[in-house]
Amino acid sequence: MAEVSTKPYLIRAINEWCTDAGFTPYVAVAVDETVRVPGEFVANGEIVLNISALATSRLLIDNEAISFQARFGGVPREVYVPMGRVIAVYARENGQGMAFEVPRAMSAPAPVAVASAPAIVPPADSPAPPEPPRPPKPSVDRPKLTRIK
Amino acid sequence: MAEVSTKPYLIRAINEWCTDAGFTPYVAVAVDETVRVPGEFVANGEIVLNISALATSRLLIDNEAISFQARFGGVPREVYVPMGRVIAVYARENGQGMAFEVPRAMSAPAPVAVASAPAIVPPADSPAPPEPPRPPKPSVDRPKLTRIK
Fold this sequence. Notes:
Number of helices of chain A: 1
CATH class of chain A: Mainly Beta
Oligomer: homodimer
Order of helices and strands of chain A: HEEEEEEEE
Shape of chain A: globular
Strand content of chain A: 25-35%
CATH topology of chain A: SH3 type barrels
Structural class of chain A: mainly beta
Helix content of chain A: 10-25%
Strand order of the largest sheet of chain A: 2-1-6-7-8
Largest sheet of chain A: 5 strands, mixed
């Protein structure tokens, strides 16, 4: 049997938790040639995507990739992110979620851009990994955003 | 809206991953008076439970608790573990999974026992938290068992 990663299961879990808790699920992505996103919204080799039901259509998180359609600057675009390129999934509102170790591309294209489309998060406004915010007062029982190697 | 913990979502995720990957899901529990398990199988205030479909019936993992029926020494017993008492969920075969910070009871009853029922894991044979085993060769993309505070 081929080895199955826990990563897609954990990403689905955090996405479901965000939805149930009324939070907005964000996914941070290390962009390389296997990732299909609007290149003009990639900054420092990364892009942060809003995968909430309001911002996306046909969202699919299977064991291979996250894929959906979303509007960027009013234009519908197809997004495809292989599991291996997901850096983190977390709630916009409090930064809770999970982070993952991802090998970076040697020379990532890094056109800096600011976007206002619903499915994209401007890098300057977002709590971007690798320094995700911590919830202000973590209770003992509450899992925090933790980088998984 | 009452605060929703990520913990039950992550426990369900690891349980589903174990099942899909052909592994046996184990749950380590810090026993206190809110936990319903056969006391004779509790060791050092902890019990490790096999929650696989083969070992349990009527398994339910909701946002409040893990509950199921299982045979202990041939006798069917009801098990109820509130979310807050779950120390870890992981695959028996490689120790991959997640661990959680749990406050310990002040004076946990600790009758040492060895069990052979299918739903219970003898402490001496099991990779018991708080020192869960690490997978032998973690790849960069593979989440490891990580203690969540």
